[in-house]
Design a protein that fits this description.
By secondary structure, the chain is of the alpha/beta class. The chain contains 12 helices and 12 strands. Strand 11, helix 12 (370-382) and strand 12 form a beta-alpha-beta unit. NADP(+) binds at residues 273-278.
């Protein structure tokens, strides 16, 4: 990997204010430009995020962060890890990087025009090449350790309804081979053709059980859509059109939000809504390994109608003295029973919950909507929990800091 010169670094850093002001305009133009020249890449990128604008905004933040830290790339380690796992799950290959680079740099020139001179663009070309080399190398290591590469056919062995919003799909290799192992907390990419968009669309879903050699289970929330958010194309296709016997194509397990299995510390699993799925995998794995670690399972959802895996959690707590639960319902239904279905009314408040009886030196795993995760992280920091013990998962366009 080539090293940037001092002048190149200075030129890239000098563009930081410009990226702050025009970054999203550049990245929106970049995607339009790239898709116009390479429409086949629409099969790789989430087109819903293109429509909503969240993907261009995310890329703009990433480009800005890279430029701002071009002289101290070590601080980008966690972000690079998360992105490369996502890329490997989507089967991003080295040949994609020159395409992205050509159109990203072209978009900068198209939008900024004479505001950037040739030496600055040369510096950005070198900087992009450096970043591409880092990403390609990291992704090559992930591919070399993956159970398979690309998308592979699996058959739906079973489908189960877990709540009004969530269904589980038990996926077995279509060729009859054993299901691969994985780290609890990892996810799969599932690819389905979306007629409305005219392209394949991959989506990531956390594995929701312990490795067992027979099947890989994902539990998918139907994204019905809201006034400001379109309905989920793939989640609705899975709920409405995928039954036992259906063939789906999936990538190998990826993701660096994983249970630190070698540790002996207590574990606190904190989830909101469908964020419960990787927590089920983590707890199931600890149970399968007969781990003596103390586990506190903290979950928040609206009410019992959308509370997936409720009975499983109740049975688990009853059978394992080292497992405790704290379930919060924000909008209780008349049929919801305190002490049976839920424990607390209202939004999850870790500050109150843990201040009354904290879990010293625990590792905290958090998954849910980005604002939810940020609130829980802030609460833990306020309780003086070391940042190295706080682990969060982010699939989409948000970040948690």
């Amino acid at each position: 990997m080539s090293t940037l010169t001092t002048d190149q670094i200075a030129r890239v850093k000098a563009t930081v204010p410009v990226l702050a002001a025009h970054g999203t305009t550049i990245t929106r133009h970049f995607y339009k430009r790239m898709f116009a020249h390479h429409p086949e890449l629409k099969n790789v990128f989430n087109q819903t995020h293109q429509i909503s604008g969240s993907q261009p905004e995310t890329l703009a933040r990433a480009v800005y962060t890279y430029a701002a830290n071009i002289d101290n790339l070590g601080v980008l380690g966690s972000a690079v890890s998360r992105i490369t796992h996502k890329h490997a799950s989507l089967n991003i290959r080295p040949e994609h990087y020159p395409i992205v680079g050509r159109h990203l740099l072209g978009a900068i020139v198209d939008v900024l025009g004479d505001a950037v001179d040739k030496p600055t663009m040369d510096a950005w070309e070198a900087a992009y090449g450096q970043l591409a080399d880092i990403m390609i190398g990291a992704e090559a290591r992930l591919y070399s350790g993956a159970a398979w590469t690309g998308f592979r056919p699996f058959v739906v062995a079973r489908k189960e309804i877990e709540s009004d919003e969530i269904a589980s799909f038990y996926l077995a290799p279509a060729d009859g081979s054993p299901a691969c192992s994985f780290e609890p907390g990892q996810y799969l990419s599932v690819k389905r053709f979306v007629d409305e968009l005219g392209v394949d669309q991959p989506r990531q879903y956390s594995l929701s059980d312990a490795p067992n050699g027979h099947w890989l289970r994902i539990s998918v929330k139907r994204e019905a859509g809201r006034e400001d958010t379109p309905a989920g194309h793939v989640s609705n296709l899975l709920h409405d059109g995928v039954e036992a016997g259906t063939i789906v194509h999936v990538s190998a397990p990826m993701g660096d939000f994983t249970l630190k299995r070698a540790r002996t510390t207590p574990v606190v699993l904190v989830s909101g809504g469908v964020g419960v799925t990787p927590m089920i995998s983590m707890l199931s794995t600890l149970l399968a390994e007969r781990s003596p670690r103390r586990v506190t399972f903290v979950h928040a959802c609206r009410n019992g109608r959308v509370h997936a895996f409720r009975q499983w959690l109740n049975d688990t707590v009853a059978a394992h003295p080292n497992v405790a639960r704290a379930v919060f319902y924000e909008a209780i239904d008349a049929t919801d029973r305190q002490g049976v279905d839920y424990d607390f009314e209202g939004r999850l408040d870790l500050t109150k919950l843990l201040a009354q009886g904290g879990v010293p030196d625990a590792d905290y795993y958090i998954c849910g909507p980005v604002p939810f995760m940020q609130a829980q992280r802030d609460a833990l920091v306020a309780l003086s929990v070391d940042a190295g013990r706080i682990h969060t998962e982010v699939f989409g366009s948000g970040t948690v800091e």
